Amino acid sequence: MERVDYDEYINRLKKRSSRFHISWEAQFGKSPRSNRPRDAEEDIVLFLLDRKRWQKALADGSIEKVGPRRYRMR
Amino acid sequence: MCLPRTDGALHGMDRRLMDFLDSLKRKKNPLRRAFGVLAVLTEALKPQGIKPILVGGRALEFYTLGGYATKDIDLVVSGRERVKPVLEEMGFSRRLGERHWYHEELDVAIEIPDEILAGSSEKIVTVEIDGMEVFVISIEDLAIDRLAAAKFWESRADAQWAAKLLALHMNDIDLEYLKKAARERHVEDVLAEALKQAEVYIDAVEGQELSPQDRSFET
After folding, report:
1. Which residues of A touch B109 (CB under 8 A)?
2. What pTM did the predictor assign?
3. ipTM of this predicted structure
4. Among the three residues B87, B111, B137, which one is the final residue of a domain in this structure?
């Protein structure tokens, strides 16, 4: 079985991935946004996770609301 | 790490900014890395009175804290040509015919699609990061942008994202401004639908917050 070093793999791939992405957009224009809506159940679950992530970030201080329309990111 | 304000000239960027930029290469969280890069760019452009504003998918990624993910950083910058030497100094490059500036080690690609913000500069959100600032299009204007895509590009996924954005940040939204902006962009109808969908999301949160014991009585 082949063993893969995750960090090394990602580092190697991300450089190539960036180049492909940029070259594609230069040649064919901005990729259209995905038009496919999520089904209702999946959509709600993902929303609840989004909300939980905000709550967690506010609780652990990685994001702090320091005023109206003002945040601090750690 | 908190960087003091830099008042240095644009060229020969402050060493501390360059060191900070270098430290970002080790950050694994792509959103945090992107915001670090933007903080450096914003700080470096300050002496010229240029204020880059984050728009598009990366702004949505911030407001959903990664629920939406994208590769690009789209900026609105008045006088975008003046950004070029700063990006070059930061180690970004751009090949002939390409719109994106990219930095392989930081794994970040920047595009400046517009010079004028589609929305209110008064409503912009400021994110402080390591003593510097990043400016982000407001939740209201970003929602309107997604609703315009939903209506005029028939992108239902964008309508969902707008509704999520509104539901996540309902307490921070200037509803009067949102409705006014929707009228101006001719998206009042899709805004009404998005607000209804936002209520569905909020109801789901309330349902989820019932204790398991409460739930057993629900039928």
Report:
1. 18, 21-22
2. 0.86
3. 0.86
4. B137
